[in-house]
Amino acid sequence: MSDDHHTDPDGHPGADLEIALVRLDPDLPLPSYARPGDAGADLCTAVDVELGPHERALVPTGVALALPPGYVGLVHPRSGLAARHGLSVLNTPGTIDAGYRGEISVLLVNHDPVTSLRLRRGDRIAQLVVQRHERARFVEVDRLPDSERGSGGYGSTGGYDPASRGGEEQ
Fold first, then answer.
1. Residue 122: helix, strand or coil by DSSP?
2. What is the pLDDT of residues 98-115, one digit of tens each?
3. Is there a cis peptide before residue 13, judged by omega within 30 degrees of 0?
4. What is the pLDDT of residue 151?
5. CATH number reported for the structural domain that contains residue 101 in this entry
6. What is the three-class DSSP state of 163?
7. Are 63 and 103 in contact (CB under 8 A)?
8. pLDDT at residue 121, as a whole number
9. CB under 8 Å to 64, separation ≥6 — which residues?
């Protein structure tokens, strides 16, 4: 990584991090960003796949990469596929560790209760976000320091009151 600014293959500024990538399938596009400023690069399916209602499949992308130490790849769903078709990444986000050198595969799930979804080879199926990460050193203590939030979780901050909407909480 250098301090000068580069452009990505589409000419967008800000592509400062070079990542070694092997295209396992020469007919598939490399991961790419749809617009300047996008955080996620689109990943494509290397195979045709049909997902029935509530079915899941591990889908290859035809690329392998070498992330530098201190970086992680996070595989996220594409929002349009999720909104329109109920397609998501089951283990969201999928984690690609810096030491992994195999093909990136995406664990997709069709959440639609009725409709099957057919994906064609080359379709964009997920987004890869590459970011820095820290490794933690876990230190066992007898008591955690106090905080404003404390141990409240899972709805403790409010945000949804079904009674105010005429319904009852299920």
1. coil
2. 999 999 999 999 999 999
3. no
4. 81
5. 2.70.40.10
6. helix
7. yes
8. 98
9. 21, 22, 24, 101, 102, 103, 104
What total of structural domains would you count in the chain? Answer: 1
Mean pLDDT of 7-12: 57
Does the pLDDT of residue 56 top 50, yes or no? yes
| Band (3; pLDDT cuts 50, 70, 90) | very low
- Looking from the CA of 2 toward its CB, the CA atoms found within 13 Å total 4
pLDDT at 156 over 60: yes
Burial class (CB in 10 A: 0-12, 13-18, 19+), 31: buried
- Three-class secondary structure of residue 149 per DSSP: coil
Residue 40, domain extent = 20-135
CB atoms closer than 10 angstroms to residue 138? 4
Question: Per residue in 110-154, pLDDT tens?
Answer: 999 999 999 999 999 999 999 999 999 999 999 999 998 888 777
Chain-centroid distance, C-alpha 39: 10
Strand partners, 107: 58
Q: How many CB atoms lie within 10 A of CB 106?
A: 23
CA 72 to centroid of chain Cα atoms: 11
49 found inside a domain: yes
Q: In this structure, is residue 118 part of a structural domain?
A: yes
Residue 11 lies in a domain: no
